[in-house]
Amino acid sequence: MQRFLKIGLFLILSPIFLNSVFAGGWDKNKGNDTIVLKGELICIGCSLKKLSGADAQCSLYSNHDVGLKLNDGTFWNFVNNDTGHDIIRGHKTVIGKQATINGWMYPNAHMIEIETIDVDGVTSKEIAITSLEEDKAVAKLLTNRKLGEIPVSSSHKH
Prior knowledge:
The protein is of the alpha+beta class. It has five helices and five strands. The protein has a five-stranded mixed beta barrel.
């Protein structure tokens, strides 16, 4: 009887899961329809480490990649392209700030492609400057790395 209930529940819920997995994620013609999202900008790695004990090593390889935490508690990463890169790398100016984003969601990958973003209390120029500084620091750190070494820098500690 218990097995029958599990199979029945699976058959009822599977169309819901399938629709949510494929919604927007496989559409190669995303069109002009964007959505508006609001949430808190967070370090995805540090947040996972605090919540679930993930072995995030933000201070070693890339330093605090920024993502979005929605009001429902879900975490979303940003597509790393010309509109997403500065936000991803601008952690010193954006962590903990509220943001309003126009863009496309890819639920199957928990990714948001940013069309535009407004971060409370921070200008796009401030974010770009921070991002450039971070890119330079990470590039120097990684180019000096030796085979088998972990690229540790005192400026990249939590």
